[in-house]
Specification:
The complex is a heterotrimer. By secondary structure, chain A is mainly alpha-helical. Chain A is about 70% helix and about 5% strand. Chain A has helices spanning about 20-50, 65-90, 95-115, 130-160, 165-200, and one strand at about 1-10. The radius of gyration of chain A is 21 Å and the shape is elongated. By secondary structure, chain B is an alpha+beta fold. In chain B, strands 3-2-1-5-8 form a five-stranded mixed sheet, with no helix packed on it. Chain B is elongated, with a radius of gyration of 28 Å. Chain C is mainly alpha-helical. In chain C, strands 2-3 form a two-stranded antiparallel ribbon. In chain C, α3 packs antiparallel against α16. The relative contact order of chain C is 0.12. Classes of the chains: A mainly alpha, B alpha+beta, C mainly alpha. Chains in contact: A-C, B-C. β1 (about 1-10) of chain A pairs parallel with β1 of chain C, so a sheet runs across the interface.
Chain lengths: ~200, ~325, ~650
């Protein structure tokens, strides 16, 4: 069949922010599936708690200090995270560069604290089902922390190169900030589960 | 004695299996009608006579009357589907409820423990001298409710005697329960119904339902310790049993043999089958089984024996006397 | 929020004549011949075809395993195949069919067709698409190589614990199964995200949500189901590997774990899994019927709502696989009700399809024959499904050949028959050739008769006491004659697939040449050549109707203004596809393959040692950085 032109797209932009960008949707999809995985891990934890005669099983509750430090650091990081996102939308390259370096630091610090969190759980992964599930829950979140930190570091490096000056890169920065919010939000839930549920639950 | 054992959900002898079969016939009847209606509808739709005008029209030609009629038929079909499903759900619920009600007041409790690949059966009793453990063959009094408590020592198994009742799983760490009530005397065969490893296919069991008096006699005989050897060969057999690896796994009450990980052999000759329903209890089968269990049930936990022919024959003679 | 107004850069397609446009677009979008092109392509059509061919290879391998099983079962106490090999065979048959054939083939058709049906030039995240294929292939190869080395898994496709745990399954067999899951789930999740983003953002201008073909709705909904179901099986397979490798106790009752937890996690995935297979198959039916009765589908809104409800409801059924585990009765009743409920939207679909046939003018070509075969066969499976939804009935037939019959009826009748019909339907589009109608009819009758003859008797076998997963059965049980009959009928079913294969191979060379629209279909994939050019559409169509090719009889409205010297496609709003962006689409790249190798090696290594994750992380990081680092091409810099 012949063709007749009815729409002209030649003046459309080539990059967008938020739901205009396919990558934003990809990020959202990734959050959905990882979020679903977290929900199931939490469900597994609660299942094992419900069938156990006491909880924590054969162990004392995890020490509060390292986990609380991680939580505080992550919650604080939400502020610079949103600032970076806002500057990226306005394409303020200088500020975005500084902001990403700050976010990289705010990703490394919790990881260091996280290293102290594992032994502070007061139980080994191979001691019993409680130890196994609490290590796996913490480990899952750590994997997310590490991969998002990696993403942040690469993006930060990119913004200091000639590739930094592009709308696409700024859009990527906002998507990365979006994902960081998810890493923080999921941690708050898991923090309450690992540290406070055992203190409040009596089988 | 080789009775043809019954193993079919279509041939119920227990109250549970009967209730389920009735429910099944209802579902089957409804399903058959539904399927026939769908096939007829499809055939009518295919074979409908299309007028020449209709055949020549384009794909987007409007058909408002036809569509309206289709909406009506589809709507009715959906409503009918919903009604049928609600009815079937109700029938199912009531059958389930009657099965649950039929669990009350059992007169006998047996503990069933699943093993790879045999069934351990423990008959409990208020009197300690009436308690005993046996394997693979369950006797129950006809017409009475018998409660079976189900658990497993290793992997998940499932207790299924189709002529008597639905199945329940035997799960490590769990105590499940099934209640059977057998309506007529007979021998009923069952199988493990959850894949449990290499010899899942050869993990059969037998349920023998007999009148109360006969059951009590059986139980008393089972509770008694093992019969002493009656012949010189059998005596040599007992000695060989005790001096070989047999005692590491098997128990024979009244002798020193106290192994806990294999079927209890105190009254093995009273059972109609061997190796969890795999072989009949005959001299030849016994010999073949002891000499090389791996040939009969490859992967079974019983190793090949290192007995010489005399020892083997003596042990067979002894075991045949353990009625 | 500021967007960037683009200066008019690059050469545009406005005002170019067809020949020039074709040449320029081909240069921009082509996959070059040769090894680099083979390994670096990101073209969804090439990747989709690869996926389909690979999935069908796995179908044949799994079918051979089934024939071996039927041979062993053809006589009581047969000694042709011992328990060890038999257990591996049924595990490989189930695992291959479910994870390496059924789900991937449906995804593959989506990968190929969705961009064409929604009128765009490539799938979203094309490099991820390439990666998905390599990861899938690696997982399948790992599993089958393990089997051929006699270390294949032998604990069934659902691998129950404690049997699959460290105590009762020593060695690495069960780990190969568990890690195959990881490979195939990563692949499926990636494709799910690509499909969702393609359908949401890359539809042709004017293709509002209620103008999307039902097939696209079906795979869109399936992608959401994948997104929420697959993490469950990844969690369960990962915890199984942990129990086996590093001594965790998730499923060890002695240390606070529970074997039933495995069943909950597995079936929370496992039930939606069968709908992940079935929903796209219903999409095939909804695509084939309108073309072959020359009428739009009846009940579009009802069908879409039914598909959505099936997707959501599928998450509420999983306990019906666990009725014999001793769960409380009230909980069981809920799952009976939900399992019955899902029959309603399934029924709505069947009634709408029959209504469409009634309202239309059928052309009884092979695709429509398979639609009829599907309806007649699948309904039987759906009805036995209603039976097993009832707890009392299920307690008799669970884990017997009755259930084997049920799920083959819904999977073969409900997914494979539509799939074969879909191959006959879209083969001309993929290859430019028609399949033989004569062989198609042989294919159809052998399949329908062979399948029903092989599987209907299994209902009786189950009721007569025959459990599943048994490598043999006693002489006295009375099951021998039926099993022999089943074996012979299975050979007929196998023959139907041989005819199918022969038809495909012969028609590739000698089939009748097909034009762009040999069947007179109405959807956009038929608006371009057969096979489509690298760039899919010369100009992106603009859509005003559900069946654009039926609505536009004179000329096709199109959008112009995209670049021809760089890979560009149109992104629009989610609801009504109003154009918003000219999105650049990635060029061919070797990084997806390299990343897949790094990821695959890490997965396989972690079967043997947890340190593999540590050693594997740097190569994976390098692969991903190479993938995402901008290439300095103009479109990266805008």
């Amino acid at each position: 069949m012949k063709a007749r032109s009815v729409v002209d797209v030649s003046t459309l932009p080539t990059a967008g922010f938020g739901p205009k960008s396919p990558m934003w949707w990809g990020t959202l999809g990734f959050m959905a599936l990882e979020g679903g995985g977290f929900v199931l891990a939490v469900g597994t934890y609660l299942y094992l708690a419900m069938i156990a005669p006491d909880w924590p099983l054969g162990a004392v509750e995890p020490d509060l200090l390292p986990g609380t430090i991680v939580t505080v650091l992550l919650v604080i990081s939400v502020v610079p995270n949103h600032l970076v996102s806002r500057w990226a939308r306005k394409q303020r390259l200088g500020r975005v560069r500084i902001g990403l370096v700050v976010m990289a630091l705010l990703g490394i610090l919790p990881l260091i604290a996280r290293g102290f969190e594992f032994p502070a759980l007061n139980v080994r992964w191979d001691a019993n089902a409680y130890g196994s599930v609490v290590w796996v829950v913490l480990g899952l979140h750590t994997a997310h922390l590490v991969t998002d930190l990696g993403d942040t570091l690469v993006l930060a490096a990119l913004m200091f190169t000639r590739h930094g000056r592009s709308a696409k890169r700024f859009s990527d920065v906002t998507d990365n900030a979006f994902y960081w919010d998810f890493v923080v939000a999921s941690w708050v839930v898991l923090y309450l589960l690992i540290y406070w549920f055992p203190r409040l639950y009596n089988p | 004695m080789l009775v043809e054992p019954v193993q079919s959900a279509l041939d119920p002898a227990g109250s549970g299996a009967e209730a389920i079969l009735t429910l099944f016939w209802i579902f089957l009847g409804v399903s058959a009608v539904v399927w026939v209606l769908v096939v007829i509808a499809l055939a009518l739709a295919a074979a409908r006579r299309r007028s020449r005008a209709e055949r020549g029209a384009g794909p987007l030609a409007p058909a408002p009357r036809g569509e309206a009629r289709a909406r009506g038929v589809v709507g009715s079909a959906v409503a009918a589907t919903g009604a049928v499903l609600i009815t079937l759900t109700a029938f199912s619920y009531f059958t389930g409820k009657s099965l649950a009600d039929a669990k009350a007041d059992p007169t006998l409790t047996i503990e069933v423990t699943g093993h790879q690949w045999w069934w351990e059966l423990r008959y409990d009793d208020p009197r300690p001298d009436m308690r005993f453990t046996t394997a693979n063959e369950i006797h129950v009094p006809v017409g009475e409710r018998v409660r079976l408590i189900l658990t497993s020592n290793d992997v998940i198994h499932s207790f299924w005697v189709p002529s008597l009742a639905g199945k329940q799983d035997l799960i490590p760490g769990h105590d499940n329960e099934i209640v059977i009530e057998v309506a007529r005397e007979g021998t009923y065969r069952g199988s493990c119904a959850e894949f449990c490893g290499l010899q899942h296919a050869h993990m059969g069991l037998t349920v023998i339902a007999e009148p109360r008096a006969a059951f009590d006699r059986w139980r008393a005989a089972q509770a008694a310790p093992a019969a002493p050897p009656q012949t010189e060969e059998a005596a040599r057999g007992l000695a060989a049993f005790q001096q070989n690896a047999c005692v590491l796994c098997h128990a024979i009450r009244g002798t020193g043999a106290g192994g806990m990980v294999a079927p209890d052999l105190t009254h093995v000759a009273s059972r109609s089958t061997l190796a969890a329903g795999t072989l009949p209890f005959t001299r030849g089968a016994l010999g073949a089984w002891i000499a090389d269990p791996q040939a009969v049930k490859p992967g079974a936990n019983m190793p090949r024996s290192e007995l010489d022919p005399d020892e083997l024959n003596a042990i067979i003679a002894y075991l045949e006397g353990l009625t | 929020m500021t967007d960037i107004a683009a200066p008019v850069k690059g050469q545009r397609d406005s005002g170019l004549d067809d020949a020039t446009l074709h040449a320029a677009l081909t240069r921009t979008w082509e996959t070059p011949r040769g090894l680099y092109g083979f390994f670096a392509t990101v073209d969804h059509k090439i990747i989709g075809r690869r996926f389909i061919v690979t999935a069908f290879v796995f179908l044949f391998l799994a079918g051979l395993a089934a024939m071996a099983m039927r041979y062993q079962l053809s006589r009581p106490e047969n000694t042709a195949i011992g328990p060890d090999l038999y257990d591996q065979l049924f595990t490989m048959h189930g695992s291959t069919m479910m994870f390496l054939f059924a789900v991937p083939v449906m995804e593959a058709f989506a990968v190929y067709l969705v961009p064409l049906m929604v009128g765009t030039r490539n799938i979203a995240f094309p490099r991820l698409n390439a990666f998905s294929y390599w990861i899938y292939l690696s997982g399948g190869l790992m599993l089958w190589i393990a089997f051929l080395l006699n270390i294949g898994p032998d604990v069934g496709w659902f691998s129950y614990v404690p049997l699959a745990g460290p105590e009762f399954s020593p060695g690495k067999r069960a780990d190969f199964w568990a890690q195959m899951i990881t490979f195939t789930e990563v692949s499926a999740l990636a494709i799910a995200v690509e499909i969702i983003v393609t359908v949401f953002k890359q539809r042709a201008p004017g293709m509002a949500l209620d103008r999307i073909p039902i097939f696209v709705w079906a795979v869109l909904i399936t992608s959401f189901v994948v997104l929420f179901a697959m993490p469950a099986v990844m969690l369960s397979s990962t915890t199984l590997i942990l129990d086996r490798l590093v001594g965790t106790h998730f499923y060890n009752a002695a240390e606070g774990g529970d074997p039933v937890l495995w069943q909950h996690l597995f079936w929370f995935f496992g039930h939606p899994e069968v709908y992940i297979i079935f929903i796209p198959a219903t999409g095939f039916i909804s695509a084939i019927i309108p073309t072959f009765v020359r009428r739009p589908i009846f009940g579009y809104i009802a069908l879409v709502l039914s598909l959505i409800s099936i997707g959501i409801l599928s998450f509420g059924l999983w306990v019906h696989h666990m009725f014999a585990t001793g769960l409380p009765q009230l909980g069981q009743s809920f799952f009976t009700a939900s399992s019955m409920l899902i029959a309603i939207p399934s029924g709505i679909q069947i009634f709408c399809w029959i209504a469409t046939i009634w309202l239309g003018r059928p052309m009884w070509k092979t695709p429509l024959l398979f639609v009829a075969g599907f309806i007649v066969t699948f309904v039987i499976g759906g009805l036995t499904g209603v039976m097993v939804a009832s707890v009392p009935i299920d307690l008799q037939v669970h884990d017997t050949y009755f259930v084997v019959a049920h799920f083959h009826y819904v999977l073969v009748g409900g997914a494979v028959f539509p799939l074969i019909g879909a191959v006959y339907y879209w083969f001309p589009k993929f290859t430019g050739r028609m399949l033989s109608e004569r062989l198609g009819k042989w294919n159809f009758w052998l399949a329908v008769i062979g399948f029903n003859a092989a599987f209907f008797p299994m209902h009786f076998l189950g009721l007569m006491g025959m459990p599943r997963r048994v490598y043999t059965y006693p002489l006295g049980a009375g099951w021998g004659e039926l099993n022999l009959f089943v074996g012979l009928a299975a050979a007929m079913l196998f023959a139907s697939f041989a005819v199918f294969l022969w038809n495909v191979v012969a028609s590739l060379k000698r089939g009748e040449v097909a034009g762009p629209n040999p069947w007179g279909g109405g959807t956009l994939e038929w608006a371009t050549a057969s096979p489509p050019p690298f760039y899919n559409f010369m100009r992106i169509p603009v859509v005003t109707h559900r069946e654009p090719l039926w609505a536009e009889t004179e000329s096709l409205p199109v959008a112009t203004g995209l670049r021809v010297d760089a890979r560009e496609l149109i992104c629009g709003t989610v609801t009504d596809a109003t154009p918003e962006l000219r999105e650049s689409s990635p060029e061919n790249s070797i990084w997806p393959l390299l990343s897949a190798i790094a990821v695959g090696a890490t997965f396989i290594g972690s079967i043997f040692t947890p340190w593999a994750v540590v050693w594997g992380a740097p190569p994976i990081a390098i692969g991903l950085i190479g993938w995402f680092w901008p290439k300095g091409t103009p479109e990266d810099e805008e």
